[in-house]
Write a structure and sequence with these properties.
Blueprint lengths: L3 E8 L8 E8 L2 E6 L7 E4 L3 E6 L5 E6 L7 E5 L17 H34 L5
Antiparallel strand pairs: 1-2, 1-7, 2-3, 3-4, 5-6, 6-7
């Protein structure tokens, strides 16, 4: 199988909402995430442990649902930098969480326009590597 490679941010319960920037590679029947920083190790997700793969609606985000004990159940790969879920402190708003969420959604939609096809191709290749299993 030919390997596929993209720059992504991995986000899970262990990384927090900012995620970790790195390279995602599909090879040898596994998804391999190599972080940009040397502080973190490589994460390998065998395709046999991937229960479901999907693109988060209207966003450049690939989600994998895993069947691995003692690990996050869902890992997301953002094909654009994850948007901040907080507005800068210098902006006063009556409903800060609402505006932060709206701002994040707008940034993801903009990223979706650029990366939508790439995420769809990843999903197709993962499903093909799994033998057509979704």
């Amino acid at each position: 199988m030919a390997s596929r490679e993209s720059t992504v941010w991995m986000v899970s319960a262990r990384t927090g909402l900012d995620g970790r920037k790195g390279t995602l590679v599909l090879k040898d029947r596994a998804l391999v995430f190599r972080p940009e920083s040397d502080r973190y190790g490589t994460s390998v997700f065998k395709l046999t442990d991937v229960r479901r793969t999907r693109r988060a609606r209207a966003s450049p985000v690939l989600e994998i649902h895993l069947d691995i004990p003692d690990s996050p159940r869902i890992v997301a790969f953002y094909f654009v930098r994850p948007p901040p879920m907080r507005l800068p402190d210098d902006k006063f708003r009556l409903f800060p969480r609402y505006f932060a969420r709206r701002s994040a959604i707008a940034l993801l939609r903009k990223g979706n326009a650029m990366k939508r096809e790439e995420v769809i191709e990843w999903i197709e290749e993962i499903e093909q590597a799994q033998g057509g299993r979704a």
